[in-house]
């Protein structure tokens, strides 16, 4: 494992609104932001200290950050790129680990009822348009109220499955969750009338459903 430089303390991180008397912080802020160009350069509100390598390597390579003591002073608008890079590296490491442990992959990951079937089918899934079929979905191809209980465990994505299970248990959903689930039903082919009828049946107090 490669060693990383020690993390600087909070006092070493320059901020745009440090006390007026903090001349050292002001000087460091100007140095770390003075070379930035473009409209975003005027919008920097915070700098984040990130190890130059590997975390901020792409920013260092493109000369987008100030470097001091092997730490990159990353503007807030570039922090998302650093986080995405860390996530990508973690996922690649996980895939490499699983590639050498097929037994674990088969017995743990693929047997998980939440994602097992989805991952097993992923290599053969075709997401493009099927020009051999009509544009209008038949009743067998679209989601219908009477078929939800039979298909939700295997066909719903994990987030929608949990939302639906919570809905069935509580007979109520907050507005945000309700909108997500309704839009999912719509995308799966359920008509507006079917959607409304289905939700009225589940609602704790059906007479109040239309008001909410």
TrEMBL record:
**One GO BP annotation of this record:** DNA replication initiation
Q: Report whether Oxidoreductase shows up as a keyword of the record.
A: no
The entry's cellular-component GO terms read:
alpha DNA polymerase:primase complex
Q: Where is the composition biased (Basic and acidic residues)?
A: 7-18
Q: Where is the DNA primase large subunit C-terminal domain?
A: 150-212
* Keyword Iron-sulfur in record: yes
Among InterPro entries, the record links this protein to: DNA_primase_C, DNA_primase_lsu_euk/arc
Provide the GO MF annotations for this entry.
4 iron, 4 sulfur cluster binding; metal ion binding
**Region (Disordered) location:** 1-22
Give one Pfam family: DNA_primase_lrg
Please list the cofactors this protein needs.
Answer: [4Fe-4S] cluster
Which UniProt keywords are listed? 4Fe-4S, DNA replication, Iron, Iron-sulfur, Metal-binding, Primosome
Record-given protein name? DNA primase, large subunit, putative
Provenance organism: Eimeria necatrix
């Amino acid at each position: 494992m490669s060693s990383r430089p020690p993390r600087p303390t909070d006092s070493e991180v320059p901020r745009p609104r440090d006390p007026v008397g903090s001349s050292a912080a002001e000087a460091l802020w100007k140095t770390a932001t003075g070379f930035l160009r473009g409209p975003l350069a005027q919008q920097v509100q915070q700098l984040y200290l990130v190890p130059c390598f590997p975390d901020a390597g792409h920013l260092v390579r493109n000369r987008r950050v100030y470097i001091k003591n092997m730490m990159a002073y990353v503007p807030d608008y570039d922090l998302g790129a650093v986080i995405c890079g860390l996530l990508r590296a973690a996922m690649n490491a996980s895939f490499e680990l699983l590639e050498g442990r097929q037994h674990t992959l088969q017995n743990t990951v693929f047997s998980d009822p939440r994602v097992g079937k989805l991952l097993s089918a992923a290599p053969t899934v075709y997401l493009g348009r099927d020009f051999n079929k009509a544009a209008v979905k038949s009743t067998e191809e679209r989601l219908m109220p009477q078929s939800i209980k039979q298909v939700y465990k295997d066909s719903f994505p994990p987030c929608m499955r949990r939302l639906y299970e919570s809905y069935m248990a509580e007979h109520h959903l907050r507005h945000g969750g309700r909108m997500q689930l309704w839009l999912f039903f719509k995308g799966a082919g359920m008509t507006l009338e079917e959607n409304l009828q289905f939700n009225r049946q589940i609602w704790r107090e059906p007479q109040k459903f239309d008001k909410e």
